Amino acid sequence: MTIQFKALPTEDVRALQRGGPDAYGHTPERGISDGDGVPCRHCLKNVAAGDAYLILAYRPFPEPQPYAETGPIFLHAQECERADEAEALPDMLESSDYIVRGYGSDDRIVYGSGGVIPTTAIAARAEALFERDDIAYVHVRSARNNCYQCRIDRG
After folding, report:
1. What InterPro entries does the database record attribute to this sequence (predicted)?
2. Pairing state between β 71-76 and 3-6
3. Exposed, middle or buried by CB within 10 Å (0-12, 13-18, 19+), for 66?
């Protein structure tokens, strides 16, 4: 089985980079990266030291519902190229581990699918989850703060 790591859609990101409202209706905040731990969810790379970035609330689900987690993410303030959908682990995943959790076609957490997984085992864990019929897609989230990192789909 193949998997695809997916970045945020460009049309959503461009609207935010142009000052559009985040998931809570607020204008994204701006910061200057120190080069450490500021992963852009569009290019799936870290924002370089000295570069501007946006801090905003993002809901990676089509509509609000009890399982539609909303939380803080970072994006480059300036336009960046969307990461290609690929089987390879994104560059920005530099921590030792992440939460890897499955969601059903109803966009709700599939109980029992989540766990804190070593970074080197994320792809294998996603492949194992996709062997289940009740898993439609997988999220990679920060193991420390639960922040959304990226989505994984079947390839």
Report:
1. DUF1203
2. unpaired
3. exposed
Closest CA to 7 of 154, 102, 103, 149: 149
Top CATH class, 9-76 = alpha beta
By C-alpha distance, which of 60, 146, 43, 72 is closest to 103?
Answer: 60
Q: pLDDT tens digits, residue range 17-71?
A: 999 999 999 999 999 999 988 999 999 999 999 999 999 999 999 999 999 999 9
Strands 137-142 and 3-6, bridge-based pairing: unpaired
Domain with CATH 3.30.1740 in the chain: 9-76
Name the amino acid, one letter, at 6.
K
d(CA 48, CA 34) in angstroms, rounded, equals 7
Is the pTM value of this prediction over 0.90? yes
